[in-house]
Amino acid sequence: MENLTILVVDDDPVIRRLLEQRLVKQHYQVAVAGDGVQAEALLQERPFDVVLTDLMMPGGVGGIEVLEIAKKLHPHSEVVLITAHSSVGTAVEAMKKGAADYLEKPINFDELFLRLDKIANLKTILRSAQDLEQAMTVTETAASQTIQDLEMAVSRKQQAIDAVEDLLSDRSLPEDERIYRALGILAESGH
Q1: CB-based contact 68:97 (threshold 8 Å)
Q2: Where in the numbering of this chain does the Response regulatory domain appear (predicted)?
Q3: What is the CATH number of domain 5-107?
Q4: Partners of 6 in the beta sheet?
Q5: What is the dihedral of CA 33, 12, 100, 46, to 10 degrees?
Q6: pLDDT confidence of residue 77
Q7: What is the 3-state secondary structure (H, E, C) of 11-39?
Q8: What angle do CA 16, 20, 22 make, to 5 degrees?
Q9: What is the domain partition of the chain in residue ranges?
Q10: pTM (predicted TM-score)
Q11: pLDDT tens sequence across 145-182
Q12: pLDDT tens digit sequence for 8-55
Protein backbone atom coordinates (compact mmCIF):
# COMPACT_ATOMS: atom_id res chain seq x y z
CA MET A 1 0.00 0.00 0.00
CA GLU A 2 1.42 3.37 -0.97
CA ASN A 3 1.84 6.01 1.71
CA LEU A 4 -0.74 8.70 2.06
CA THR A 5 -0.02 12.30 1.14
CA ILE A 6 -0.98 14.52 4.07
CA LEU A 7 -1.40 18.27 4.36
CA VAL A 8 -0.96 19.47 7.95
CA VAL A 9 -2.63 22.84 8.65
CA ASP A 10 -2.00 24.45 12.04
CA ASP A 11 -1.18 27.99 13.09
CA ASP A 12 0.90 26.75 16.06
CA PRO A 13 4.45 26.17 14.74
CA VAL A 14 5.28 23.72 17.55
CA ILE A 15 2.26 21.50 16.87
CA ARG A 16 2.77 21.81 13.12
CA ARG A 17 6.42 20.74 13.40
CA LEU A 18 5.60 17.90 15.81
CA LEU A 19 2.90 16.55 13.49
CA GLU A 20 5.20 16.83 10.49
CA GLN A 21 8.05 14.98 12.23
CA ARG A 22 5.85 12.18 13.56
CA LEU A 23 4.11 11.69 10.21
CA VAL A 24 7.35 11.71 8.21
CA LYS A 25 8.82 9.19 10.67
CA GLN A 26 5.87 6.92 9.80
CA HIS A 27 6.75 7.35 6.09
CA TYR A 28 3.84 9.58 5.13
CA GLN A 29 4.44 12.27 2.51
CA VAL A 30 3.80 15.53 4.34
CA ALA A 31 3.27 19.17 3.37
CA VAL A 32 2.56 21.88 5.94
CA ALA A 33 0.63 25.14 6.01
CA GLY A 34 0.67 27.72 8.79
CA ASP A 35 -2.88 28.89 8.16
CA GLY A 36 -5.95 28.36 6.02
CA VAL A 37 -4.76 30.71 3.29
CA GLN A 38 -1.53 28.73 2.81
CA ALA A 39 -3.56 25.51 2.89
CA GLU A 40 -5.85 26.80 0.15
CA ALA A 41 -2.83 27.70 -2.01
CA LEU A 42 -1.38 24.19 -1.56
CA LEU A 43 -4.75 22.57 -2.29
CA GLN A 44 -5.00 24.66 -5.48
CA GLU A 45 -1.68 23.13 -6.58
CA ARG A 46 -2.46 19.45 -5.94
CA PRO A 47 -4.69 17.01 -4.09
CA PHE A 48 -3.79 15.35 -0.80
CA ASP A 49 -5.13 12.05 0.45
CA VAL A 50 -5.65 13.56 3.90
CA VAL A 51 -5.90 17.12 5.17
CA LEU A 52 -5.17 17.25 8.90
CA THR A 53 -6.31 20.68 10.03
CA ASP A 54 -6.73 22.58 13.26
CA LEU A 55 -10.34 23.61 13.67
CA MET A 56 -9.68 27.00 15.24
CA MET A 57 -7.19 29.23 13.41
CA PRO A 58 -6.96 33.00 13.28
CA GLY A 59 -7.79 34.83 10.08
CA GLY A 60 -10.63 34.36 7.67
CA VAL A 61 -9.90 30.74 6.75
CA GLY A 62 -10.36 28.35 9.68
CA GLY A 63 -10.64 24.58 9.80
CA ILE A 64 -14.23 24.48 8.55
CA GLU A 65 -13.27 26.62 5.55
CA VAL A 66 -10.24 24.41 4.87
CA LEU A 67 -12.61 21.41 4.95
CA GLU A 68 -14.96 23.09 2.47
CA ILE A 69 -12.10 24.11 0.16
CA ALA A 70 -10.52 20.65 0.24
CA LYS A 71 -13.82 18.91 -0.50
CA LYS A 72 -14.69 21.35 -3.27
CA LEU A 73 -11.30 21.04 -5.01
CA HIS A 74 -10.65 17.36 -4.28
CA PRO A 75 -13.78 15.43 -3.27
CA HIS A 76 -11.74 12.28 -2.56
CA SER A 77 -9.49 14.03 -0.04
CA GLU A 78 -10.28 13.06 3.54
CA VAL A 79 -10.26 15.82 6.16
CA VAL A 80 -9.45 15.14 9.81
CA LEU A 81 -10.02 18.02 12.21
CA ILE A 82 -7.95 18.70 15.30
CA THR A 83 -10.03 20.31 18.01
CA ALA A 84 -9.91 21.38 21.61
CA HIS A 85 -12.37 19.56 23.87
CA SER A 86 -14.62 22.61 23.98
CA SER A 87 -15.05 22.48 20.17
CA VAL A 88 -16.22 18.87 19.87
CA GLY A 89 -19.73 20.01 18.91
CA THR A 90 -18.27 22.05 16.07
CA ALA A 91 -16.19 19.06 14.97
CA VAL A 92 -19.33 16.90 14.83
CA GLU A 93 -20.99 19.57 12.68
CA ALA A 94 -17.90 19.52 10.45
CA MET A 95 -18.29 15.76 10.02
CA LYS A 96 -21.78 16.43 8.71
CA LYS A 97 -20.09 18.65 6.09
CA GLY A 98 -17.81 15.81 4.98
CA ALA A 99 -14.97 15.59 7.49
CA ALA A 100 -13.73 12.01 7.86
CA ASP A 101 -12.93 12.29 11.56
CA TYR A 102 -11.71 14.53 14.33
CA LEU A 103 -9.10 14.32 17.06
CA GLU A 104 -9.05 16.14 20.36
CA LYS A 105 -6.01 17.99 21.69
CA PRO A 106 -3.59 16.94 22.99
CA ILE A 107 -3.13 14.62 20.05
CA ASN A 108 -2.81 10.92 20.81
CA PHE A 109 -0.49 9.79 18.00
CA ASP A 110 -1.47 6.13 18.29
CA GLU A 111 -5.07 7.20 17.70
CA LEU A 112 -4.01 9.43 14.79
CA PHE A 113 -2.06 6.62 13.14
CA LEU A 114 -4.99 4.20 13.58
CA ARG A 115 -7.30 6.69 11.88
CA LEU A 116 -4.82 7.26 9.07
CA ASP A 117 -4.53 3.48 8.61
CA LYS A 118 -8.32 3.28 8.42
CA ILE A 119 -8.36 6.01 5.76
CA ALA A 120 -5.56 4.27 3.82
CA ASN A 121 -7.44 0.97 3.94
CA LEU A 122 -10.65 2.59 2.76
CA LYS A 123 -8.80 4.30 -0.09
CA THR A 124 -7.25 0.95 -1.07
CA ILE A 125 -10.67 -0.70 -1.04
CA LEU A 126 -12.09 2.16 -3.09
CA ARG A 127 -9.25 1.86 -5.63
CA SER A 128 -9.81 -1.91 -5.83
CA ALA A 129 -13.53 -1.36 -6.36
CA GLN A 130 -12.79 1.16 -9.10
CA ASP A 131 -10.35 -1.27 -10.76
CA LEU A 132 -12.98 -4.01 -10.55
CA GLU A 133 -15.62 -1.71 -12.02
CA GLN A 134 -13.28 -0.82 -14.88
CA ALA A 135 -12.51 -4.51 -15.51
CA MET A 136 -16.24 -5.28 -15.50
CA THR A 137 -16.87 -2.49 -18.01
CA VAL A 138 -14.17 -3.89 -20.32
CA THR A 139 -15.62 -7.40 -19.91
CA GLU A 140 -19.16 -6.18 -20.57
CA THR A 141 -18.00 -4.34 -23.68
CA ALA A 142 -16.20 -7.45 -24.97
CA ALA A 143 -19.18 -9.67 -24.14
CA SER A 144 -21.54 -7.26 -25.85
CA GLN A 145 -19.39 -7.27 -28.98
CA THR A 146 -19.19 -11.08 -28.92
CA ILE A 147 -22.97 -11.36 -28.57
CA GLN A 148 -23.45 -8.94 -31.45
CA ASP A 149 -21.00 -10.93 -33.60
CA LEU A 150 -22.80 -14.18 -32.75
CA GLU A 151 -26.19 -12.68 -33.53
CA MET A 152 -24.89 -11.54 -36.92
CA ALA A 153 -23.45 -15.01 -37.63
CA VAL A 154 -26.72 -16.69 -36.62
CA SER A 155 -28.63 -14.28 -38.84
CA ARG A 156 -26.37 -15.11 -41.82
CA LYS A 157 -26.75 -18.86 -41.14
CA GLN A 158 -30.53 -18.50 -40.86
CA GLN A 159 -30.61 -16.69 -44.22
CA ALA A 160 -28.60 -19.53 -45.77
CA ILE A 161 -30.91 -22.17 -44.26
CA ASP A 162 -33.96 -20.27 -45.49
CA ALA A 163 -32.43 -20.04 -49.00
CA VAL A 164 -31.59 -23.78 -48.99
CA GLU A 165 -35.10 -24.64 -47.79
CA ASP A 166 -36.68 -22.48 -50.52
CA LEU A 167 -34.36 -23.98 -53.13
CA LEU A 168 -35.01 -27.59 -52.10
CA SER A 169 -38.77 -27.09 -52.14
CA ASP A 170 -38.64 -25.50 -55.64
CA ARG A 171 -39.98 -28.32 -57.85
CA SER A 172 -39.30 -26.34 -61.05
CA LEU A 173 -35.61 -27.41 -60.95
CA PRO A 174 -34.33 -30.96 -61.29
CA GLU A 175 -33.51 -32.62 -57.95
CA ASP A 176 -29.75 -32.90 -58.59
CA GLU A 177 -29.63 -29.20 -59.62
CA ARG A 178 -31.41 -28.20 -56.38
CA ILE A 179 -28.97 -30.28 -54.31
CA TYR A 180 -25.97 -28.87 -56.18
CA ARG A 181 -27.14 -25.25 -55.61
CA ALA A 182 -28.03 -25.96 -51.97
CA LEU A 183 -24.53 -27.28 -51.37
CA GLY A 184 -23.15 -24.11 -52.95
CA ILE A 185 -25.24 -21.92 -50.64
CA LEU A 186 -24.07 -23.89 -47.60
CA ALA A 187 -20.44 -23.66 -48.73
CA GLU A 188 -20.71 -19.88 -49.10
CA SER A 189 -22.23 -19.55 -45.63
CA GLY A 190 -19.24 -21.27 -44.02
CA HIS A 191 -20.27 -24.93 -43.87
Answers
A1: yes
A2: 5-120
A3: 3.40.50.2300
A4: 30, 50
A5: 0
A6: 95
A7: CCHHHHHHHHHHHHHCCCEEEEECCHHHH
A8: 120
A9: 5-107, 135-188
A10: 0.70
A11: 999 999 998 998 999 999 899 988 989 989 988 889 88
A12: 999 999 999 999 999 999 999 999 999 999 999 999 999 999 999 998
